[in-house]
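Suppose you are handed a protein chain with no further information: no name, no annotation, nothing but its sequence. What can you learn? This example shows the usual starting point.
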Amino acid sequence: MTPPVVLVPGLACTAEMFAPQVAALSPHRPVSIASTAEGDSMARMAAAILRDAPPRFALGGISMGGYIAFEIMRQAPDRVERLALLDTTARPDAPEQTAQRQTLIARAEDGQLETIMREIAPRLLHPLHKGDQTLIEVQVRMGLDVGAAGFVRQQRAIIGRPDSRPDLPGIRVPTLVLVGDRDPLTPPIRAREMADALPDAQLVIVPGCGHASTLEQPDAVNAALLEWLEA
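A reasonable first move is to predict its three-dimensional structure. Written in structure tokens, the prediction is:
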């Protein structure tokens, strides 16, 4: 039996982040979206996902979902048939990133989550998409669904995530590394760093795309994922 696909959303994201991928992949394999609603660290979030996941599966994660995917590979590498890392990085948080997150945590705890999401959403997108209100509203809606407490918990888990670069050479499954060509958070140089260190990686740089690749360029992402599933 072909292993199902488990997709892990990013920070302040819900299953809606992968709506185009579920539609495209479901005719080929069963697809489920992992919940990131449990756990205050990468290790605990990964353990919760593994508890509910099939015995063996293809694993994909975007942004924070990629950080969780690395932790899943540390905890249960034999359960993962193949790996997709979308718009993410193996590096830990830099001090300036942690400082920014602490500011966002304080603002979210002060009741400013919607304001934060409306500020952040356009910044994640390709310059040509920054005025796309449909894309912005999806991100705001997802953030509000996650809620302030979830946002804070996820930010703290991201701050505490380990450096996954030492683990890359030991990941032996077929791995897709995909990134938007204008991703402002995890740029192509970070994707190339991962692809170069992974033993069996394919690097895909999506043109006309920022950080929210699954929503910004769903056709290109779907094509890369379908090819990955056949590798």
